[in-house]
Structures are given as C-alpha cells and as structure tokens.
Design brief:
Blueprint: H1 2-15, E1 23-28, H2 30-39, E2 46-47, E3 67-68, E4 73-77, E5 85-88, E6 98-101, E7 113-117, E8 121-130, E9 137-142, E10 148-154, E11 164-173, E12 175-178, E13 188-198, H3 212-223, H4 239-251
The structure holds calcium ion (3 copies).
Length: about 260
C-alpha cells in the first residue's frame, strides 16, 4: 500500500517535467571538432587505431575490434561473434594509416556496427572522422528504452577536412549504430573519441532522472524474482530488498 502510494506520488511529481532528449550536434572541420571536444568536457579519450594490424585492402585479415579499453566501449556487428576490423590505407586515414572499418575482420561489406559502453556506463559524447570518400557516414544514437534519440552525419571524405561529426547528449545514450549502407559498403572511420557517464544504480530506467519509471522497473525485477533485485545480497528476494531500494531512492543520485 505504502509502495503503491509512493509510486503514484512519484508519477505525478514527474509527469509535468519530462525532459526532451537532445543531441547537441557538431559537424564539419577541425574547428568543429575542437568545439565538440570543449562541449564534451575537454580531455576526451581518443582511439587512433594505430596499435592494430590493419588490412591493406578489402580482404578481411585485419584485427577484429571487440573492445576498445581506452574508450570503455565494446563493438559488435549484427552477426554474433563478427566484429568491425582495421583497414590500413594512408590515403584515407585521419591519423597514421589505420582506420576502423566495417569489413576489416571478416564482416561482409554493408555491415552496420554498434558501439556500446561497458556495463554501468552510458555514452555522453562521441566524435569521429569519416574516412570513406564514397558517402556520408550516419550514426544513430539510441536510449536505453530503445528509442532513437537522434543522428549525426559525417560528410564523405573529399580531402577538404570537413568530415568530422560528433554529438553531446543531454540524455544517456545506450549505444550508437554506425550505418554501413553507403558507397560500395566498405566503410571506414578514424580517431574515434568518446566520453562516458556513470549510471546511478538507482536509475534503473536509465535517463538521469529518478521517477515512477525507476520504481516500476525495480518492482518488475522484484516480481520476476530477477537476481538483480536482491539488493541485500542474501540470496532471498523479499521485503527487505524493496526497503533497500526505496532507501537508496530517497538518498537520490549525484546529479
Ligand atoms: Ca588512424
Ligand atoms: Ca530514471
Ligand atoms: Ca535479498
């Protein structure tokens, strides 16, 4: 009863102030990259892919890239166990010779790939240089509830230096999708830069807000006897876990 009343109160407390998700978009030259970097917080980690073995052509012999530890992200294609790879071609790279490609490790041309933060984190900002000269690279950002938050487009690499794109999101991003469907399908980018945020453990419906939907998410886990609902870590899911969640909820998050 108490719980239901709390949930109803929280719902009304939040109903009037649902924040609109926003991507601040930066597209263009190194000037735009610098502006993006400043908006993203300054010291942004970058992956140049120069530490990898790249394939010099479209033969899939490059290193598979399943994780980028320096950026705190994992990568995947739509096929289980198949990853983006590394393409080596100084004519198109933004740094050195190597670039991240959708084909360099066994994936077929036209493959999409996803970039996802490690557990407990969300994507706050992402920037990259489009290397491929045959088309614009579109990247879609998705929220944890599966909704698409927006997209950015890095222009085809015509050598004029206007092929950067990045965003800073006001809403936690669960993953981004690099679309693989342009040009001849062999697509490549470079100098991937990512800023992550920390997910507050109480924020179960991940949106950097505490409201009815978080309580609802906990109650769903509780009702399903999901082991994650065992907040007291005693192997039993019972009232004390609900109490622990509500106590954590009332302590709030460091936003
Ligand atoms: Ca590079
Ligand atoms: Ca939430
Ligand atoms: Ca328990």
């Amino acid at each position: 009863m108490l719980l239901r009343r709390l949930a109803v109160l929280l719902f009304f407390a939040s109903a009037g102030s649902i924040a609109l998700a926003q991507l601040a978009v930066f597209q263009g030259s190194s000037v735009d990259e610098a502006a993006w970097r400043a908006a993203a917080g300054g010291a942004v980690p970058i992956e140049t892919f120069e530490g990898y073995v790249g394939t010099p052509d479209t033969t899939p012999t490059g290193d598979p890239v399943a994780i980028l530890p320096g950026l705190g992200v994992t990568l995947e294609t739509n096929a289980a166990g198949v990853f983006p790879g590394v393409y080596a071609d100084a004519a198109f790279a933004h740094s050195g010779v190597n670039q991240l490609s959708n084909f360099g490790a066994g994936a077929p041309p036209f493959s999409d790939f996803h970039v996802r933060p490690v557990p407990g984190k969300y994507l706050r900002a992402i920037g990259f240089w489009q290397c491929d000269p045959q088309g614009d690279q579109i990247v879609d950002a998705y929220a944890f509830n599966g909704f698409r938050l927006g997209s950015i487009t890095a222009r085809a690499n015509d050598g004029s230096g206007g092929n950067f794109a990045g965003f800073v999101s006001s809403h936690p991003v669960a993953y981004v999708r690099f679309r693989g469907h342009f040009g001849d399908g062999y697509n490549h980018i470079d100098d991937l830069q990512i800023v992550l945020g920390e997910i507050c453990p109480v924020d179960l419906a991940v949106d950097n807000r505490l409201d009815f939907y978080d309580v609802q998410a906990f109650l769903s886990m509780f009702a399903a006897a999901d082991p994650r609902a065992d907040l007291t870590e005693d192997g039993v899911i019972n009232f004390f876990d609900v109490q622990a969640y509500l106590q954590a909820y009332s302590r709030g998050c460091p936003w």
